[in-house]
Amino acid sequence: MIYNELKQRGTFDFPIELYHLEKNHPRYEMTSHWHTELEIIRILSGEIVVRLSNNKYTARKGDILFVNPEIVHGATPDDNCIYECIVLHLDMLRTNEMGCHFFIDSLLNHDYMINEFISAPESDLFIATNRLFDAMGRKSSGYKFNVIGAIYQLFGVIIDNHLYSSSSVETTISADKSIARLKNVLSYMRTNFHRQITLDDMADNAGMSAKYFCSQFRKMTTKTPIEYLNSYRIERAARKLLNSDDSVTDIAFSCGFNDLSYFIKTFKSIKGITPSKFRKS
Fold first, then answer.
1. Cβ within 8 Å of residue 165, ≥6 positions away
2. SS3 of 77, please?
3. CB neighbours (10 Å) of residue 79?
4. What are the CA-CA distances from residue 160 to residues 91, 94, 105, 224 (Å)?
5. Partners of 113 in beta bridges
6. 24 DSSP assignment
7. pTM of whole model > 0.85?
8. What CA–CA distance (Å, rounded) separates 70 from 35?
9. What is the secondary structure of 131-146 as a DSSP string?
């Protein structure tokens, strides 16, 4: 389902993590992916286009988005956008209180889905969401208690205001055969990004003709297969620029580019800055 992001969130006993994303962040543009956790996104400034399965939302300062478990999602921010994401394992919320347990299990089983896009003036929700983000960002000595309390308060607001809906089998990700068929090719691309990959290679891994593959791929990711591959390669290159002393040339070749000038051109078109300046900034 695009690619499955397998990552330890927070710590084993407190699996929740906060991400603050500004223009110089290597994952500023969110390539299409999915994961089993719930993700909450709040927009601090600027504008961002967020894709959730087949839905697309333009979010601005103050807006909040909920990414339900296993929903394919990606985002393209403008140059002035600053946004934050909290990703958490719903299992951490399970308690012996059956009322809470039932709602959490319903989200995990895709029986319920939290409304994806919330724009002002849902005041109670915004107060609860901001309290959660603030608790995560403050990291006080008692922040874990504050975070857990803020999460339960947020879910209470969601339930009180019925900001969720029942989902049918047809609306769950497992029912989308096109996404299931793309699963293999995205895994292939991310495993072999450092090698030379042709369009035919990708189409074969998806089990589709090249023409149909390109059409379905663009429908799900808003990018052509080559654009997506280059975007992922640049994301990996950006991480290496920030976390290693390897030369720009070595990084370009290690990320699947066999032409330095093309790498620099592609990097600048995606990041708005050359690799060398990106590393210095």
1. 112, 113, 115
2. strand
3. 9
4. 21, 19, 18, 42
5. 165
6. T
7. no
8. 5
9. HHHHHHHH--TTHHHH
Each residue's pLDDT tens digit, 172-222 = 444 456 666 676 787 788 889 999 999 999 998 888 889 988 888 887 777
Q: How many Cα neighbours within 13 Å face the side chain of 61?
A: 6
Which of helix, strand or coil describes residue 215?
helix
| pLDDT (average), residues 212-239 | 86
Residue 173 per-residue DSSP state: G
Do residues 132 and 151 touch, judged by C-beta distance below 8 A?
Answer: yes
**At which residue do the structure tokens 């946004």 appear?**
83
The tokens for 103 are: 């709602």
> CA triplet 72, 85, 99: central angle to 5 degrees?
80
- Which residue's structure tokens are 């620099």? 264
Token pair, residue 30, equals: 């969110």
Which residue has tokens 């710590």? 11
